[in-house]
From TrEMBL:
This is Threonine synthase. The keyword Ribosomal protein does not apply. One of its GO terms (molecular function) is threonine synthase activity. It holds the Pfam family PALP. It comes from Geobacillus jurassicus. Keywords: Lyase, Pyridoxal phosphate.
Length: 405
């Protein structure tokens, strides 16, 4: 048994292959690279029962992760987040079997910890000393913190409009932080120039192949948590779409290993009304998206006007008979409140977008009676305190309780 069954990198567009022991960013053709594993050997040598004795974190799947030597693992204990039944919300929406995969309870407060843990660990294994990335906030925060733990210097560029807390996470970890008066794509252009100039490791979404491997563990965990029987539908708030691509990749790997049976879940890419390039492409039956002008939404993590991996997101949606759907900010904020009121979970607006989409797809009948549905809540609402307005009455010491009956 090997610690990792990683074999090589490959391009999903032109099929060129690359060595996994050297630093590679994009393929020569400009497409993102993906990680391949020797699933045939693994199928013979590793049985899924080995997991029973392992710790409850994402490294329990080390055979399906790209880090070859355990001493390079940089971990804060991330993974194996709860799969929470949502019975009261389910009744309210009309889905009897509704679950939330809750990424609000992972280090750094969002699922970005998964990509950062695996991405930074592999960067360390490859000898990286300095990395740079654009971010909408949460990824920059997670990568800054994990890079600090690895002794790697991080440079992060984020939009001025990103929630302020995320700047502080980068800053406290000692990252070099810059703000840009624009969107994540503008941050990306600045980072790309700096990388050409200084030779840093490019940790931008899908410009290194390993972040997606970390995010794929959400798919592995959901399968294991359902005792290897797959749910019918999974909804994911989609910006760059890495989580959705990762979950799709994870389930295909599990199928190749023979660890799961049954149909691939129908994958739903959820976007916001004013930033919905993938939804538009899906509606037009296209394989790639177009840049979305003037993008804006309260769900800041999914404010991505053009994703490098759009063709992979769309492939996952088409191949699984899934769909892409946009929800408006009003629905997002209303859903965030409903989830807290009915289930006691303070979720992030991105997660709330996915719940709002579940509601709409149930109403339209796309989600059918009796189906098992998993919504990915990608982070904690605590990171977005500003999305909630409260004006409680202020009492003076000694005041009577003002309740009227
Ligand atoms: C909380 C949250 N949810 C969802 C996303 C979208 O992630 P992805 O790039 O995988 O689409 C982000 C990205 O910043 C995020 O911060
Ligand atoms: Zn290629």
């Amino acid at each position: 048994m090997r610690f990792s069954y990683v074999s090589h990198l490959y391009c999903p567009k032109c099929e060129r292959t690359y060595d996994v022991d050297q630093i590679h960013q994009l393929c020569e053709c400009g497409a993102p690279l993906l990680v391949a594993y020797d699933l045939e050997s693994m199928r013979q040598e590793v049985k899924r029962d080995v997991l029973k004795e392992r710790e409850a974190n994402l490294w329990r799947y080390h055979e399906l992760l790209p880090v070859k030597h355990p001493e390079h693992i940089v971990s804060l204990g991330e993974g194996m987040t709860p799969l929470v039944p949502m019975p009261r919300l389910g009744r309210n929406i009309g889905i009897n079997s509704l679950y939330m995969k809750d990424e609000g309870v992972i280090p750094t407060g969002t699922f970005k910890a998964r990509g950062a843990a695996v991405g930074v660990s592999k960067a360390k294994e490859l000898g990286v000393k300095q990395l740079a990335m654009p971010t909408n906030g949460n990824a920059g925060a997670a990568w800054s913190l994990y890079a600090a733990r690895a002794g790697i210097q991080a440079t992060v560029v984020m939009p001025v409009d990103a929630p302020e807390l995320m700047r502080k996470e980068c800053a406290i970890a000692g990252a070099e932080l810059y703000l840009v008066d624009g969107l994540i794509n503008d941050a990306g252009q600045i980072v790309a120039k700096a990388i050409r100039e200084y030779g840093w490791y490019d940790a931008s979404t899908l410009k290194e192949p390993y972040r997606i491997e970390g995010k794929k563990t959400m798919g592995l965990e959901i399968a294991e948590q359902f005792s290897w029987r797959l749910p019918d539908v999974m909804l994911y708030p989609t910006g760059g779409g890495v989580g959705l691509i990762g979950i799709y990749k994870a389930i295909k790997e599990l199928q190749a290993l023979g660890w799961v049976d049954g149909r691939m879940p129908r994958l739903v890419a959820v976007q916001a009304e004013h930033c919905a390039p993938i939804v538009k492409a899906w509606n037009e039956k296209k394989r790639e998206s177009k840049f979305w002008p003037n993008a804006h939404t309260v769900a800041f993590g999914i404010n991505v006007p053009k994703a490098l991996g759009d063709f992979l997101v769309l492939e996952a949606v088409y191949e699984t008979d899934g769909c892409a759907i946009a929800v408006n900010d009003e629905a997002i904020l209303a859903e965030q409140r409903t989830v807290a009121e009915l289930e006691g979970a303070f979720i992030c607006p991105e997660g709330a977008a996915a719940f709002a989409a579940a509601r709409q797809l149930r109403e339209s009948g796309w989600i059918r009676d009796g189906e098992t549905v998993v919504v990915l809540n990608t982070g904690t609402g605590l990171k977005y305190a500003d999305t909630v307005n409260v004006n409680p009455p202020v009492l003076e010491p000694g005041d009577q309780f003002p309740k009227e009956n």
